[in-house]
Design brief:
Layout (H helix, E strand, L loop, with lengths): L1 H16 L6 E2 L3 E3 L1 H4 L9 E9 L4 E7 L9 E8 L3 H6 L11 H7 L4 H5 E2 L2 E2 L1 H19 L5 E6 L5 E7 L4 E11 L6 E3 L12 E4 L1 H14 L6 H11 L7 H14 L10 H18 L20 H5 L11 H16 L1
Parallel strand pairs: 3-10
Antiparallel strand pairs: 1-3, 2-3, 4-5, 5-12, 6-7, 8-9, 9-10, 10-11, 11-12
Length: 341
């Protein structure tokens, strides 16, 4: 229901944007724990959806990935380039070609383009684009509000569009719309998600959220009925809620074990043993300060995920590489306490 509402909202945004030279919004794709099936508290869940951007007429996107980081934590910038629209101008007469008319000519006859509104130095600006989407969402809500049984509030956010839906029953739902530009046909994209470190407004982060979603769907097709892998994640996320270990660490460990153990070992009767296995796996990773990213340099990743060749050929990426000693010791104590229970 949440995804359908967001799609209706985005469709209204799309209709409004047709008269502009601003990005086109693709239908949303639900990603993250709420759509993978392991969000442990429904009432506190944040429904994260990815909305891919397509360039408007007369523009193209050129993705420039940085080389200073490792996959998949690389930063990228989206260069916006003008494309010739002279043929459309001659045939339809409804536009002036941005590329072959002066800025003053274009400005007098049609609305400003993407470069003037959402870019900084010819690069798509994350913060400007997020503010633009927030404004569009407010306008689009005015169009569809009468058909909905909830109220919408757009919450402050610098790099994404965060919404709070309040239903007539009093229930509230939080939605985060992450904008993305697809890197290739294999589903890797750079997105506007929040970062742990300060980034420039033209920096987008490479993400594997779609491949992670596909992995859980792949597991669901092979797992026995009542498989406990999602329950394991829900329980551990709850038990380690304030831990140094993030939900992403728990998810990564579980994904590794899902490829190491056959599906039959994840039936509900084995729940306690699988919980012990995940805790033991994480304990060993912490001791060795080495937890490898699941999708990078991992030969166990199912072929159905169709990872880019660069991911398959890359060296394993250690998520614990920068883990400081004190947080490491604290996480070990927390895991030991759980294992002793």
């Amino acid at each position: 229901a949440v995804q359908e509402l967001v799609d209706n909202l985005l469709h209204a945004c799309h209709v409004i944007s047709l008269a502009t030279f601003l990005p086109r919004l693709e239908p949303c794709i639900g990603v993250g724990s709420s759509f993978e099936g392991w969000s442990h508290r429904v009432e506190d869940a944040v429904y994260r959806v990815l909305v891919r951007l397509k360039p408007p007429p007369g523009h193209s996107f050129r993705l420039q990935l940085g080389t200073d980081g490792e996959l998949p934590a690389r930063h990228g910038r989206v260069r916006v380039k003008l494309q010739c629209m002279c043929k459309r101008e001659q045939l339809l007469g409804d536009v002036l070609c941005f590329q072959h008319h002066s800025y003053e000519q274009v400005r007098r006859h049609q609305r400003p383009g993407l470069l003037q509104i959402l870019c900084t130095d010819s690069y798509l600006d994350v913060e400007k684009t997020a503010r633009w989407l927030q404004l569009f969402v407010r306008n689009a809500w005015d169009v569809i509000a009468e058909q909905q049984n909830c109220q919408l509030a757009v919450l402050p956010s610098s790099r994404s569009c965060q919404l709070q839906l309040t239903y007539d029953s009093g229930r509230t739902v939080n939605v985060e719309i992450v904008l993305g530009v697809q890197q290739d046909k294999l589903g890797v994209f750079v997105g506007s998600q929040e970062a742990e470190t300060n980034l420039s407004s033209t920096t987008w982060l490479e993400s594997c959220a779609l491949h992670e979603l596909l992995f859980f769907r792949c597991v669901a097709r092979q797992a026995p009925q009542g498989s406990c892998h999602l329950t394991c994640l829900q329980l551990l996320t709850y038990l380690l809620g304030d831990s140094v270990l993030s939900p992403a660490h728990l998810k990564t460990a579980t994904m590794h074990l899902l490829t190491l153990l056959p599906p039959s070992e994840w039936c509900r009767e084995h729940l306690l043993q699988r919980l012990r296995d995940i805790l033991h796996y994480l304990h060993r990773c912490l001791q060795e300060r080495q937890l490898h990213h699941f999708l990078v340099g991992n030969e166990q990743v199912p072929r159905e995920l169709s990872l880019p060749a660069a991911f398959q050929a890359a060296s394993p990426l250690n998520l614990f590489q920068r883990l400081a000693r004190e947080p490491q010791a604290q996480a070990l104590r927390e895991l030991t306490q759980l294992q002793d229970q």
